[in-house]
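WARN retry 2 of 3 for item q-0093 after timeout on previous attempt; input resubmitted unchanged.
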Amino acid sequence: MSTKPPILVQLSEVAKTYGDHMVKALSAVNLTIERGEFIAIMGPSGCGKSTLLNVIGGIDRPTAGRVLFEGEDILAYNDEKLTALRRRNIGFIFQFFNLLSTLTVEENIALPLELENTAPKAVRQAVALSLESVDMTKRAKFYPAQLSGGEMQRVAIARALIHAPKIVIADEPTGNLDTENGELVLALIAKINKEENRTVVMATHSPEAAAYAGRLLQMRDGCITGEQQCCPRP
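OK item q-0093 returned
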């Protein structure tokens, strides 16, 4: 008899407002994310996709509601504990790569481990494996300015995974890529999800990107307005 995957993240009645005029970015959002899921979030610009990702990832604190990570209410965490949660358990992939221009490829990838004071030998070994996994070993000494967009995103993925996070949060990961490189990046994210059972939550405008996910959420005006189970693209 199969057992249901454990719940990794749970949002209950989460709301987020900004500014003196109380602009609503999220409104009474309820969401359960199980370990190993690949969830895509779609909706028009300004509907709250990025805000939802930031709340799930502990970057933004909601105005109201609860956010549980493995059963613990992370809104009760102070900034130091919340930072530690992100460093150890969450990997972020952004549309604009967010690589540090003054660091080489291997230095960018190593950064999350170095922030955790990981032993240098362990860092070197982990970086070598990460470079191989995204086919960037030959670019290890290059700087971001010497890379193509697709290569930069592969480095960003390696950096997001170097610390073996429990969840990967991807905000429009193919938004700045051409079709070919976008498909390569999506295939890599899907492979990580399937082979490593890594939970992925991805915001996207692209139906082609969403086709890689096993569950699709539709958002509008800060609310989840629809949900469907999908057959992920092989």
